[in-house]
Amino acid sequence: MQEAVIRGDLEAAVEPAGWIADHQPTAGLPAGQEAVLADMKKQAAVVAGATDPKHAATATAMVISYCGTCHAAAKITAAIPEAPKPVAEPAVAAHMDLLYQGLAMPSEERWQKGLAAMQGTPLSEKDLPKDAKLTKDIVALEKNVHEMAAQAKTATDLGTKVAFYGEHIGGCAGCHGLHGKVW
User: How confident is the model over 83-102, as pLDDT tens digits?
Assistant: First the structure.
């Protein structure tokens, strides 16, 4: 669901979001987490019905945060592998993985590593679509992403992190959709 939203492919997000909305069991949850699961399912349904990438992104960030909320309540660390290390140059996807893990595990260390990677991993010209009409818009979005990462480093509450992550992946989807095709 998250990857489809990031790509700006809302059609591909429908099936996994619908599954989350319809199939998450409540048995075995820590006490009091039934409401968290109900909220997660509602937000997954929002993603499944979204027609706008920003709404889908915000709801996706909420779903991921509910995973982390339940993991924290259960006092477990989700078994999410460390993000792969880039071989030659910093990978744009690595910071996305770390931010996701920071919310879903939850892990402040991975959240901060993701922000640090995001600040230091600008897209190079070769990463951008070859469309002169869009270059200025894409460069502006890219600059905004790095400014947002600097601001998010001071976020300590979950709501601010969720808002940042939703805006961030919504920006990814918006940029990917600028040229009229799904990357």
Answer: 555 444 445 667 788 899 99
